[in-house]
Amino acid sequence: MSNSNNNSNHSTSNEIPQFVVIRDQVHSTYKHPIVHYVFEDEPFPEIPKDNLIMVDMDEQAQLDQIESYSPHFQVTNCRLDHNSTVYDQFEGDHDGTGFMTIEGVSAPRASEAIDSLQPVRNLDNLKETLVNFKLRNEMVKSVFSPVTTTAPTQLASSSSTNKQSINN
Description:
Elements: E1 17-24, E2 29-31, E3 34-39, E4 52-57, E5 63-68, E6 73-81, E7 98-106, H1 110-116, H2 123-144, E8 148-150, E9 162-167
Parallel strand pairs: 1-7, 6-8
Antiparallel strand pairs: 1-2, 3-9, 4-5, 4-9, 6-7
């Protein structure tokens, strides 16, 4: 199951993001994926699809569609930004390079899910279990709703349609 969304948020940006990070909302972790840039006139590389997230961008480098081919990770949100705090950590001028954050939820392996089950022993455990259930239920709802995308702020120029494949 993969989510896709045609982005209706259009801005004046046309810079392909150079920095990509994946945020797992279940484990509150970040990954820096291997990124392959594939332009419209190039053949798609041989990449295993079990860890593939495809980001399709239009000619103005706006998010057009994003899909996860992984059975263990589904995308819930994608943001483009060039005014990120990442740039504040480095000295010198900002060159306008874009930053993409892909958010999603991961599914635990079956053995991890079974090992994480705890018996309900008291009222506090029951309350915690109910809170966790509500949080997970909201995450599941977000997986089945259309992916939301946030348009970037003003960036530099670029002119080709780009498909980004991201191995997480």
